[in-house]
Sequence to fold (306 residues):
Amino acid sequence: MPDLAFEDFVPGTVTTYGRHEVTREEIVSFASQFDPQPMHLDEGAAAQSMLGGLAASGWHSCGIMMRMMVDNMLGGSRGMGSPGIDEMRWLRPVRPGDVLSVRQTILEARPSAKKADRGYVKFRFELLNQAGEVVLEEVNSIIFGRRTQEALA
Amino acid sequence: MPDLAFEDFVPGTVTTYGRHEVTREEIVSFASQFDPQPMHLDEGAAAQSMLGGLAASGWHSCGIMMRMMVDNMLGGSRGMGSPGIDEMRWLRPVRPGDVLSVRQTILEARPSAKKADRGYVKFRFELLNQAGEVVLEEVNSIIFGRRTQEALA
Fold:
């Protein structure tokens, strides 16, 4: 994994990464623990719901996307965490058999006004299915350590 | 569980519910699957991080809150899903041994402009620890079926 620092995130850059094939078993397992609503647990009940068939909890989709972000970008980076999510939209159901990946767009990068050793990078993360459709869109900032400070030290 | 419909959500109403005691095992288990960053997996690495000690993945906190929402409010309701999250802030670390509950505030309720059988309820959900501190704050809308339509039918 690359040693990504604040300086490495250039606004406008678009990257696509990750591959995760969704199974019925993991949809039901996640929902049983965190979101036991019928449309995430049972095909019959799901068919009668707005989702029109068994689909993953929206929070499960967030977890799947996070894992691909860690495996392909955050892991090994100078990431220091995130203050939160500016906006998130669940746009389409995630079904068993879907093959998901992440499209990452860097929206903004600004040094911290208070702490010289770090900066905020604002991203748009989109979770894509095998048809290239966006199933989940999320805008959020992540804090990264700055490399520049080393040269100044 | 009560049969909660759109009409039952009155703006200004504040409710507190749920109880979940967080374990080290579940923090590590969730992080291993969805967010394998050192501060969620290993005490030593976590002590060196911004979190200052082992803490749950922010997405794990979201899942814990969702489960309490389903068990105490959404389950048995006429909930039809959510379009997304307007804003979410991770405010404090969630540690092993923390005892969490949910404070729910109804911000707004408006009938759907397009579909007469449903309406949108906008909530603020706060995840509280045993000290009454807010560890996670989330604003989002949930769609609920309307009871009124039955009388009109």
Q: What stands out?
A: Chain A has one domain: 6-23+57-152. Residues 104 and 125 of chain A are 5 Å apart (CA to CA). The mean pLDDT of chain A is 94. Residues 58-74 of chain A form the longest helix (17 residues).
